[in-house]
C-alpha cells in the first residue's frame, strides 16, 4: 500500500496546477491588444501621412501639395516643404517610430511564448515582454511628439489624419498593455512554486 501511495503522490506532484480563468483571460486580452497595437502602428508608419494643413499633406516619408483640379503631387525631399529642420527631424521621427514597432514585436513574441511554453522562466519572459512594450510606448510617443514639434506652426486638431490617430492609439495601447502586463505579473502567484500559508 505504501508504494502505491508514493506513486500517487508523485503523479499528483507532477501535475501542474491550472491557472484561474480570469488570469488566463486577462493575459490573453493583453496579448490581443498588443497585437492590435502593433498592426495599427505598422500601418500608420507605412502610410505615414499624418497632417493635412490647408493644401499641404505632411508625412513621415513624403511631402505632398494638393489642389482641387489635380492629383496630389508628392515629393520625397522634405526640405522643399520650407519648414526648418523638417528633413532631418523626420529621419529621427520615423526611425524612433519604426524602432517602437520592432521592440513591440519582440515584446509580443515574449508574451506569447511565456503563455504557450510554461516553464520556470515564464514569468520572466512575461515581465521582459511587458518591459519591451513599455519601451515601445516611449519610442512611439517620442516619434509622435517630435512630429508635432517639427510641424508646430501647421498643427491644428482637425488637421491630423486618421493615420496619426492610429499611431496615437497604438502608443496608448503599448502603454496600457505594458503597465497591465507588469501589474498582473506582480499580483499573481508563480505556478511552479508551492504556496505558503
From TrEMBL:
<dbReference type="InterPro" id="IPR029372">
    <property type="entry name" value="Tmem37"/>
</dbReference>
<protein>
    <submittedName>
        <fullName>Voltage-dependent calcium channel gamma-like subunit</fullName>
    </submittedName>
</protein>
<keyword id="KW-0472">Membrane</keyword>
<dbReference type="Pfam" id="PF15108">
    <property type="entry name" value="TMEM37"/>
</dbReference>
<feature type="transmembrane region" description="Helical">
    <location>
        <begin position="126"/>
        <end position="151"/>
    </location>
</feature>
<feature type="transmembrane region" description="Helical">
    <location>
        <begin position="157"/>
        <end position="176"/>
    </location>
</feature>
<feature type="transmembrane region" description="Helical">
    <location>
        <begin position="91"/>
        <end position="114"/>
    </location>
</feature>
<keyword id="KW-0812">Transmembrane</keyword>
<feature type="transmembrane region" description="Helical">
    <location>
        <begin position="25"/>
        <end position="45"/>
    </location>
</feature>
<keyword id="KW-1133">Transmembrane helix</keyword>
Amino acid at each position: 500500500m505504501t508504494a502505491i501511495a508514493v506513486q500517487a503522490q508523485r503523479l499528483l506532484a507532477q501535475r501542474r496546477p491550472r491557472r484561474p480563468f480570469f488570469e488566463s483571460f486577462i493575459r490573453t486580452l493583453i496579448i490581443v491588444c498588443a497585437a492590435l497595437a502593433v498592426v495599427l502602428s505598422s500601418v500608420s508608419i507605412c502610410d505615414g501621412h499624418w497632417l493635412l494643413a490647408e493644401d499641404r499633406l505632411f508625412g513621415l516619408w513624403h511631402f505632398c501639395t494638393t489642389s482641387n483640379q489635380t492629383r496630389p503631387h508628392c515629393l520625397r525631399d522634405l526640405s522643399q516643404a520650407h519648414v526648418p529642420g523638417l528633413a532631418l527631424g523626420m529621419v529621427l521621427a520615423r526611425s524612433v517610430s519604426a524602432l517602437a514597432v520592432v521592440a513591440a514585436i519582440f515584446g509580443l513574441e515574449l508574451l506569447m511564448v511565456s503563455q504557450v511554453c510554461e516553464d520556470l522562466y515564464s514569468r520572466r519572459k512575461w515581465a521582459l515582454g511587458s518591459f519591451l512594450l513599455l519601451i515601445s510606448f516611449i519610442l512611439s510617443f517620442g516619434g509622435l511628439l517630435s512630429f508635432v514639434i517639427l510641424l508646430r506652426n501647421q498643427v491644428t486638431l482637425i488637421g491630423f489624419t486618421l493615420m496619426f490617430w492610429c499611431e496615437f492609439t497604438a502608443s496608448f495601447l503599448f502603454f496600457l498593455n505594458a503597465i497591465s502586463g507588469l501589474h498582473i505579473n506582480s499580483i499573481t502567484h508563480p505556478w511552479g512554486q508551492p504556496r505558503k500559508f
